Amino acid sequence: MKKIFALLLTLAMVLALAACGSQPANDPAPAPSDGGQTDTPAPAPAPENTKLVVGFAQIGQESGWRDAETNDVQWYAARNTDTVELHFADAQQKQENQIKAIRSFIEMGVDVIAFPPVVETGWEAVLTECQEAGIPVILVDRGIDANTDDGLYTTMIASDHVWAGEQAAIAMNDLLGGSGVVVELEGTVGASAAVQRKQGFDEYMAANCSGIEIAASQTGDFTRAQGKEVMESFLKTYDKIDGVFCHNDDMALGAIEAIKEAGLKPGVDIKIVGVDGVKGAFEAILAGEMNCTVECTPILANQIFDTAAKLKAGESVEKWVMSADEVYTADRVTEDVVAGRAY
Questions:
Q1: pLDDT tens column, 29-55
Q2: Are 277 and 297 within 8 A, CB to CB?
Q3: Sign (positive or negative) of CA dihedral 226, 228, 233, 239
Q4: β-strands 327-329, 292-295 pairing
Q5: pTM beyond 0.90, yes or no
């Protein structure tokens, strides 16, 4: 009996030792040989955005010309979503809104910032911020004050507005036969396009057209409504007006309305010269109610995005990329020309 008990005790001890020697399935894994620290794989780097990211701060919707420029930029971006990312802001004709938009583009880290300056002055601070952020700046269709350091922007894509004013003066002189009284509807006060178109027109008149008097010059803010309002005032103030030079076609179309309401024939009793080359102006020329428009194309998207792509790639570009514009008098405007106009 004692032998049987001893045998059973020995068997129990063997089984207990075997159980102690086994490792449960939920025991922790053996410690690594590097002191207990395990290597975790590093997170994969975020893929670099290969798209061209452009921030565009538009002036607003002052005219049909401006709408055409906006549509062209947005249409281009919509057609090229695989390569272009556009951030668009409408400043509603206010410089402070443009500056706010530009600063938001800086925070986004866009590749390039493009904008038409609503006025010439007051850009030094925000353009310095762009420069410090390493973001190239494209001025579109307008420039900034000549006294501002031109190193604060990279390039400008725009028409020659002084040339446009000169061409308008030449056309007006021809229409009036070298003598008469002219009034001038200016664009937005302080806008480079208005400043330079006035410069080109007034200086050419003073130097070459001694028989023509510029009786008055007042801003119509580049809008049709204000163009009409200012022309109404001119017609009440002056007994004789032979011609009106409008810094853009929308103001010219407003002036046409005022002339009609005064019982006069636009384009006949009062010669009308505008700038921009919008479809409405061509229609007015075809109808005999306007005499000339100097083109200033708003179709700039290809140039803007091509230039932006070069800047992102580190390529150098010209300081002024000039648009190719033309002068359209009545003899050049046909139904086919009007029908083919894109804006």
A1: 444 444 444 444 555 544 556 899 999
A2: yes
A3: positive
A4: antiparallel
A5: no
